[in-house]
Each structure stands twice: as structure tokens, then as C-alpha cells.
Known about the structure:
CATH architecture: Roll
CATH superfamily: BH3618-like
Shape: globular
Oligomer: single chain
Low-confidence stretches: none
Radius of gyration: 18 Å
Number of helices: 3
Number of strands: 11
Order of helices and strands: EEEEEEHHEEEEEH
Largest sheet: 9 strands, antiparallel
Structural class: alpha+beta
Number of domains: 1
CATH class: Mainly Beta
CATH topology: BH3618-like
Distance between the termini: 57 Å
Amino acid sequence: MVNAPAERRTSITVDLPRFGPCTYDQEADVFVFPWGLPGFEDLRSFIVIQLETQNQIVWLQSLEDPNIALPLGDPWTFFPDYEPKMPSFAHISLDLQGPEDFMVLAVMVGTDGGPTFMNLMAPVVMNLKNRIGRQVPLETSRYTVAMEIPVPTGMAEAQARARAEAVSE
């Protein structure tokens, strides 16, 4: 897909419940998920939002349902030895030519005050050239849907101190 010249691009501003006003370019910023996502099969158009305060999370924001935004993270940030073996249907359906053409992210799920989990068994793969994305279930994988994100050394102690201080106040 060829991007339109800057003067012909269409910028759209939407008011999102989670993020407030957001402006995106209809041609350059939208990812299409032709097969939807598990649990959101009817949603096809998404943008990726990066917040300054959350440098390890991006949000996959639905354009059809402004209430749906999924947190995604770079799996290698938390699991440096992650080695997903993409099935052939992913290469074909997303037209993956080379590693520079796409990004792999994983859906994150947090719990109030508890651990955060990452779905390494079915990463979200997004072709950066043709703007098509898909959640890809890995075949014969050692990963699970709920891999607990390891807490960096020292952070667990700091979190425990912060919780203890919050309870004692």
C-alpha cells in the first residue's frame, strides 16, 4: 500500500473514554485485523497508542468500539529467550517478507495489586507495510496463554514496602 501524499491524508480526531482526544491518520495509522481478535471478532480497525507514562505498554485501540483497548507489550522485554515459531499461515496471510516488515507484541492482562500476565502462546503480529494484523496461535509451543511477567530485582521489595505503607496510613 502506498501512503497518500501528506496534503491528501485524512486526519481524524476521536474522543476515547480511556485516553481522551486522539488524532490519527486514517491511512498511515490504522491496522486492519481481517479476522478480528479472539473475543472481538467483529472489530477490524485499530490504532496503536503509546502513552508517555507507560513506556513498556502500547494500547491496541478499536476504532469501531471506543471502549475496547487492549494492552500489548514487547515479549522480549520480559522474556529475552522468547522464540515464537510462526506457523506458515501467518507468513502467508500477513504477507510477511522480512523481519523489518512486522512487529510481534503480546496481549497483557493485569490484576489489581497482583501479577501481570502476558499471552506468549498467541502473539499479535502486525505487518508494518500493509497495515494488516492478526493474533497468531503458535503451534507446538512451550508457552502458555498466561505467562507471569517476572518482576525485576528490587522492584518486588519496593512494591511490598509501598503496599505496607499504604495499608498503615
